[in-house]
Amino acid sequence: MKKKSAWEKLKCGKQPHIVPEYQGQPMLVSSPEEVESVVAQIPPGHTMTLTQLRQELAHRHGVEHTCPMSTAIFVNIVARAHAEREEETGQTGVPWWRVLRADGSLNEKFPGGAREQARRLAEEGIVL
Questions:
Q1: What are phi and psi of 6, to 5 degrees?
Q2: For strand 65-66 and strand 25-29, is the pairing parallel, antiparallel, or unpaired?
Q3: What does DSSP assign to residue 117?
Q4: What is the DSSP string of 43-112?
Q5: pLDDT digits (tens, 9 = 90+) for 66-124
Q6: CA angle, corner 41, sides to 25 and 126, nearest 5?
Q7: Is the pLDDT higher at 18 or at 23?
Q8: Are strands 17-22 and 25-29 parallel, antiparallel or unpaired?
Q9: Residue 107: CA atoms inside 13 Å, Cβ hemisphere, count?
Q10: Residue 41: how many CB atoms within 10 A of its CB?
Q11: 66's torsion region: left (phi>0), alpha (psi -120 to 50) or beta?
C-alpha cells in the first residue's frame, strides 16, 4: 500500500466535529483543511501560537476547547503539504512558518526544523 503524501492527508475531506463530553465540556476536533484556512489568514510579519490557533478554531464553533493533539498534528500536515508543494512548483502556499508552538518557540517538527522556520520568519522581519 502506497504511503499518503502530506497533500493527500491535508485534502482528505475530514470534517470538524464536536466531542460532546471531554472533561465535562464539549471539545472541537478540527480538520486539516480548517487549520489550513486559519493559518492562511496570518498576515506577513505576524505569528500565531498553537494556543491562539486553537482558541480561534473553538470560537468558530462556539465551544471553549479545541483538541491540542489533533491541532498540532494538523498544523504539521499543513506545513509538510505546503513545503512539498513549494518544492514541486516553486510557489509559496500557506505560511505555515508563522505558527509557533504554544510556548511561543519555534517548531523542530516543521519542514527544515526550527532553523528553516527562523529563516522564513527573519525574511518577514520577525526575529525570536
A1: -60, -35
A2: parallel
A3: H
A4: PTT--EEHHHHHHHHHHHHT-SEE-HHHHHHHHHHHHHHHHHHHHHHS---S-GGGEEPTTS---TTSTT
A5: 999 999 999 999 999 999 999 999 998 999 999 999 999 999 999 999 999 999 999 99
A6: 105
A7: 18
A8: antiparallel
A9: 23
A10: 12
A11: beta
